[in-house]
Amino acid sequence: MNAGHEQNLKFFNLPFSSKRSSIFLFVITFLLFLLLLFRVKSFDLFSLPSISSPPEAELNGTRPILNQLVTFFPLKDLKFADRPTSGRTWFMSSFNDSFDGGDSQYLYFPSMTSNGRFLCISARDVSNGTRNSYALAWPEALPDGAALLPGLTFVSDTFYDYDNLWHGLGALLPFASWHQRKQCVVPARWVLFHRGELRTTMGKWVRTLAEATIGEVRIEDFGGSDGRGGGVACFEKAVVFRHNEGAMRKQRRREVYAGMRCRARAHCGVVGDRWEEDSMVTIRLTLLLRLGSRAFKNESAVIGIFERECARVEGCRVQVAWGNNMTFCDQVKLMRETDVLVSPHGAQLANLFLMEEKSSIMEFYPKGWSELAGAGQYVYRWMADAAGMQHKGSWQDPEGDQVECGDVVDQHKCFGLFKDGKIGVDEKYFTQWSATVLKEAKEMKLIGNGQLHIPSTSCLCM
């Protein structure tokens, strides 16, 4: 062994005095361990156990601390004002969404992401969402004066409203999907917001659809009718949708629309498959017209064109209706009896999902829509595709009312001058277009032995 290696070994050898110290420390440590063990055993054998504080007493001590940890934030976060409907949105902006395969984004409380805490809301303002607020609170330490509302609560925030058929349907769709996926659960209450502002009503059509497809609708007004005095309310369970249908995939939307169609028909007593009632292959064309904005200038001329073309197709029948004087169930029945829907752009077209799948839609616009309306002009085309219908195109009046934007630079403001214009008539185009659509509908029915769809099965949640 060389000298260098011997020096390295000597470096790790302890001197004699160090060895004695180490042995001494080991013996002392061992004796202390034995003494401690003896004391513990003696305590277990000869001492009475101490009486611990009851859980309630411990909670009373920690409640003030937990209460102080409850922090309220504005429901409407103006930091996201430039992108209110994208990403997190400005509604409850501190939370990230959860996803279930193919469905819309949502928030659920209590959950692992909320650390078991309840959602609490203080909301009375109907004009400024920044004055309404939300927080998370432990079940054992709710905010002072807060009421705990039992059961499941549906919480909705929409950028639009709950009165218009199209807007309201978009807000309902994710809740109908949740209802279908979660063993047909019915909420104890609904809490509605529009851009963080409290809403306490739904339009009649929207509310009836919600009750037909989900169950009884009770809208929370935070008015203190239960003694809360309009204070803070915390929810035992709450699901929040703030993107309408959001990221819901097309196949899932089709399934949800089918379930809603079935439930709406059952609610209205419109049951069975219509094709079974037809003694022959029948094409039913419906003109669903409007009064006032976006109405046809010459309704009788438009009706005459479609009646004439329908008469040239064996088994074709024409129905004419105005959505403003029909009940919800009237509209459900009418759509069930429609294969080809002819209508101006407007909320009445939200009924299209109530038709049989593969039915056809023909849509009409006043002048200015294709240039100024933006993506909004395509909503019923997208809806038709999602619901399994066939959108057969649209026609815009090339002439229309003589309106000039003048010094108006903003496209949205300029569109406001055209939005509710009347719609003219192009007899030649309408004749050719209707003939083509009716021919295609007839051929499809012949291929399907008189039906445009697969016969429906029993409704979900019935």
From TrEMBL:
<dbReference type="InterPro" id="IPR007657">
    <property type="entry name" value="Glycosyltransferase_61"/>
</dbReference>
<keyword id="KW-1133">Transmembrane helix</keyword>
<dbReference type="Pfam" id="PF04577">
    <property type="entry name" value="Glyco_transf_61"/>
</dbReference>
<keyword id="KW-0325">Glycoprotein</keyword>
<feature type="domain" description="Glycosyltransferase 61 catalytic">
    <location>
        <begin position="276"/>
        <end position="361"/>
    </location>
</feature>
<comment type="pathway">
    <text>Glycan metabolism.</text>
</comment>
<keyword id="KW-0812">Transmembrane</keyword>
<keyword id="KW-0808">Transferase</keyword>
<dbReference type="GO" id="GO:0016763">
    <property type="term" value="F:pentosyltransferase activity"/>
</dbReference>
<dbReference type="InterPro" id="IPR049625">
    <property type="entry name" value="Glyco_transf_61_cat"/>
</dbReference>
<dbReference type="GO" id="GO:0000139">
    <property type="term" value="C:Golgi membrane"/>
</dbReference>
<protein>
    <recommendedName>
        <fullName>Glycosyltransferase 61 catalytic domain-containing protein</fullName>
    </recommendedName>
</protein>
<keyword id="KW-0328">Glycosyltransferase</keyword>
<keyword id="KW-0472">Membrane</keyword>
